[in-house]
Each structure stands twice: as structure tokens, then as C-alpha cells.
Amino acid sequence: MLGRTADSLYWMARYMERAENVARLLDVGLRMALIPSAKETRDSAWASTLEVAGGQEDFLQRHGEISRNHVIRYLTIDPENPSSIYSSLHAARENARALRGTITTEIWESLNSTWLEYRDLDEGGLHARGVRNLLDWVKERVNLFRGVANGTMLQDDSYNFVRLGWSLERGGNTARLLDSKYHILLPSVADVGGAVDYYQWGALLRSVSAFRAYHKIYSNVIVPRRVAELLIMRADMPRSLHACLNQITATLDELCGRRPFECRRLAGELHARIAYASMDAIFAMGLHEFLTEFIDRNSDLGTQIQRDFMMLA
Amino acid sequence: MTAFDEWYGTDRTPRDMIREIDRWLQAQPVEELGRKRDEANILFRRLGITFIVYGREGGTERLIPFDIVPRVFSAAEWRRLEEGSIQRVRALNMFLADIYSKQEIIRAGAVPSDLILANDFYQPQMVNFQPPGGLYTHVAGIDIVRTGETDFFVLEDNLRSPSGVSYMLENREVMMRLFPDLFATFPVAPVNHYPDDLLRNLRAVAPRGVDDPTVVVMTPGFYNSAYFEHAFLADQMGVELVEGRDLFVRDGVVYMRTTEGPRRVDVIYRRIDDEFIDPLAFRPDSMLGVPGLLSVYRSGRVAIANAMGTGVADDKSVYPYVPDIIRFYLDEEPILRNVPTYMLRKEEDRKYALEHLGELVTKEVHGAGGYGMLVGPAATKAEIEAYRARVLDDPANFISQPTLALSTCPTFVETGIAPRHVDLRPYVLGGDRFSLVPGGLTRVALVEGSLVVNSSQGGGTKDTWVLGQ
User: How many CA atoms lie less than 13 Å away from B183 in the CB half-sphere?
Assistant: First the structure.
């Protein structure tokens, strides 16, 4: 396969995953905004939503101050924001367009019609439709994309590059989500285990579709340490770091074969850090420090994958 | 100016072969036709069959309107078009081989030497180089118009990288989906083996000693207006679609960058112009090409289709000489006629043309896509005067032709079924012999009375049928 084709497959998947992650992120923001709290707390919640999504500086330059509607607009339909859902769906579709000879018609059709429907959405349309409804629709369309890719693609290298794209993007996003919420979610020691904490951590869990799983696994109140454990270490949680790395290493095994690629070594190293981590050690090190390091290494791994396979001139 | 109608002739009754098809068409309620057309549009859009119109915001994507009423040729009509097109392309190939070697036609005085040697599209790098099999045009598109029952004219030869064949194939695909019964009733000759024929021909020109050649389609990239077609053809042939940056030259061989490392490339079906193909040999600012590609080509270690330097033979300034070119090399009379052409580089022609701009079609020698041309009868006085100024500025850059009454075909438009003007581009494939699939791209001017069929100017397309015996 052409290196450039692999690159487009990988980024097509990453951008679709990103669109979903922005939708999930905004969803958790909207849920948290429903919880009664002081104005400063609400504002700082929107600020952290922006921080995770990226582009906080750009946003402040253009809008001055952070407000709910501006953040929603910025993350959903703003074409100037490179990580808005709009930009992600557009980039995914442009990558797909460069892949017309590689991907199945079904994948193209699902991506293309998602884009065509989303493209014409303006602020009026957004609110008429309801932001939550739109976010659900985005998640649904990304699920459709994954389903179609799983169900129609020949399971060769091209499929592996798609899988790599989405697990890399997803791991990074889960880590960022957890990290930012960790800051704002512990307003005071008195609140730990209280009602506010329940709703806020609950919202985070829901945003990664882990609310029910949490209760099923722990049958206990929501506490940060368990949430972190669930989203970092549980291999059976589809959006956990461990699950993402399992997927990455397995996919790289297929792609590398016997070739001793640096990206496989990096992936193995990172996988071991997560799979054999202990929550005590993570909390001793500091969750924030641990997640920051993971995000950096995850992104280095992405760069190395491109270097090893995509031979871009 | 009354035009010949291909369904109803001049006496308004359906011609023999059309009678049954016409009966079918007349039996279709307008709502049903409208529904089918909407269905076709949905199919095209979902398949992403769009083209890019230049000029606005760096190019916007649009759908070429598709007309669901087919254009129909009889087997006998087709035979003549086929023979005529092949004759032209054969002669033009011999012409190319000649002007890049012995130049006999110039010495015989049949074509003025400055027209060839001073032509921007003449490639000195091709002199004394014989492409594999002596073949220059692996794919040629011949633009043909009709003015009467037996009157066909060639408007233009496209010998560089003619586009549009994907529409021929997709139009048929969509027609077969919408109207399966029609194809069961009428003996419509199939066209869908075109990619197979093309691939076979491309494999056949691979460098000597390569048993299982790697063929690629080379595109300028997905901002090109015909990108969809490049991807479509690569897909249909099952070969890689590459851009310049995917290829590189090392040790006199062309490679592509793959996830498995470098892989040798033997045949390049390129859909990128000569001047962009190799920044070392042509435009140094080209980001689309492959440095060193031309020298590999010249050493015979990669084949490029179409060959370099074919543009000199389809240039509008050479066009008026094509009938003589056919006579010179083949010693045959042209089967398809040329449109009489005034070359404004000649004083006599210029004088006539400038006096009659309002009746003629005037275009730039190197223009394409219907941009920058003047259709005299449809133009305002002011437009004509503005154009006159352009012509006077650089007369050698223009030619004029009489405005032809292009034939019409029934077309489904807002007001129902109505006649609209059409042209035709069949595709001649070059291999061990020249061949065509029975069909081509029919373009239709959807605006009433308009003679401009270009998609960039509001033209649409039709499925083109050749009926079997």
C-alpha cells in the first residue's frame, strides 16, 4: 500500500474519532452545566472543556470571554476552529475523498452523507435541532462509520491503519478528559463523595459510556480513584487507556510482522506502563503528571508510526 | 438556424430505430421521469461523482446534471464514427512519430514548420526517442458534432489526457439501475469493459523484461477537477492511484513509497500535464511531478501514457491540417470531416473573421473547457467588441469557425421533454491496435438554444447507446 494511502486511512479514522470525542466532551460539559453551582464554577467548567478540546487561546482572542453559547458554537460548527466537529468531519471526508480507490463505497457514502448533512448547519439550525440531539447524531454517525468500516473493509493493512487511527486518538482523548476533570472536579475535600461529586463524576463516566459499567464493576459510590482505575487500567473498558493500547499493539504486530520497527517498541513500552501500573504508584506520582506523560508518549507514538510506515517525503 | 434532431429527423417522425424507444419515452408520465431524475441525482451525489468548477473560492464542487433520456446511435452510424476516429488517431500517431524524428511532413511542405517547431507543446526532449511500440496516444478523446443525418464533424482531438470517460461508465451504470427493463428490451452494446481494455493496453507497453508490470494512475491530487475520475479508473483497474510525491527516482528506476518500503513502478498512466511531470526537465516550480522521471522514461525503464509531447498534435493551430495529415500518412480520404477553420494568424482569414465575428465561433488556440470563447450569434455587441480587442492584441492565438447547428436530442428539462443540442466524445484506446468501446460521453447544452455543452458552462451529460444488430 502507498504510504500516503496509509496516512489518509489513519487520519480519516482519527478525525472521525475526534469528532465523536468532541461531541462527548461537549456532552459532559452540558450535563455538568445542569448541576446547580456558582457562576465561577460553571465558567471554569466551560474553560476546562475548551482546554481539553484545544484552542483556548484562539477562542479567547476571538470571543473575549467564555460563554456557554460561544463554546458550543466554537466546538460544533466553527470552521475556523481546527478541532471543531465541523473541521473534524470535513478533514475526515477530505481524507476519504483521497481514498476513493481504497475504501469501500459504503464507507464513502456514510462519511460523505454525514458531511453533506452537517456542512449546512448554522447556529439557528443547531439550536432548532437541539445541541444534545445533534451531539447524539454525531456519535451515531461515527458509530455508523466504525460499523461500516468493520463490516465492509477487507481485513488487510488498510483496515489496520484505520484501527490504529482510532485507538490512538481515543487513548489520547480519554487521558485528556480524565486529566482536565481531575482538576476541576475536586473543589474541596468536603465535597468528596457528596452529591455534587456524584453528578460530576457521573457526567464524566457517562460521557465515555462508562456509567453503567462503573456500577456493574464496583457496585459502590463513585470515587475519583475508581473512576481513574476504570478509565486507565481496565482492559475490558473500550475507551480505557489499557484497551486502546491492547488494540494498538495487536494492530502493530500485524503491520510490522517481523520487521523491528521503532513504533512497535514504543507501543510495547507504553503498553507495559499502563498494563502493569498500580493505582497507588499513579496517585503517588500524581494523576496529572501520569496523564500528561501518557499524552506525550501517545503522541510520540503517533509520530513514529507515520515515520515507520508512511515514508512521507 | 434549424438543427437536425437525432430522434425525429427533419420530418418530425421518429427515425426507424428510435420508434420503439420513443414509444417508451412518450409512455412515461412526466412525474415518473422527474422521480427517476431525482433518484439519479441522489445516486451520483452519494457516489461522490462531482467535478470542480474553477473561479469561485478556489473551486467548488458540483454535480454534473445527468439527463435520463439516452442518446442513440445505430450500428451503422457507429461503425462510421469508429472508423473515422481510429483513422484520425492512427494518422496523428504517425504524425507524432514523424515530427519527433525525420520530420518528413515538414520537408514535404504539408504542414508549416514554425507551427510545429515553435509550438509551446512541441517537446524537444522527445526528439529521437521512440516510446514503446511507437505509441503516443494510449487514450484519445475525439470531440464530434453532428449537423445532419450523415454529417459528422470533428471539432477537436484530445491527445493529452482526455477526461470524461468515468461519466460514460457511471451514466451507464446509473441508467441500468434506473431502467433495467430498457436494457432487457433493446440491444444496447456494453461499454463497461473499458477499464479492462485500458489496463491490458497499459500492461502491454511495460519495459522489456518485466513479466508482471506494476501499473499506476498518476493524478495531480484531489483538488484537480477530474480527481474523481482518476480514482475511479484506478479502482476499476485495481491499480494504485499515485501523486508525484508518492513516487521517486533512484538508480535510474521509478519507485513508489509503500508501507512495505519502495516498490518499482513500470507503467504510469498519467493524468497530469507534460510541464508538471518532472521539475528537473520542465517547470522547476512544479510540486506535482517527480524529479528525474523524464530521464528514466527516456532510458526505457518506465512507460508513460500518454507519451510526452502529444499536445502539439491536438493544438487548435494544427487542427486545420489534420485532413492533410491523414492523406499524407495513410493515403486515405478522411472519413470524418473537419469544421472549416479560419486561422487568424493568416491575414486573409483574419480579415474575414473580424468582419464576421457576430456569425462565427471564435476561440483561443490553447483554450479548453469552453472558457474564453465567443459564440457570435449568442453574444451582445459589447461582448463582440471586447473580444475583437482581445483578438487584435494577439491574432495568432485565435481561430474562428462557422457556428454549426449542432444536432438535438430529446432531453428532460423543466418544461418536460424538449430538444437540446449535443456533442459526442468517444474514446480511442491504443494498444497493439486502436479500438473503441461502443459508446462515449454525450454532452448536452441544457439551456434552450445554447450550443455550449461544457460542464463548466451549464452543460449536462447523457448515456450514449449504440444499438446492436
Answer: 15
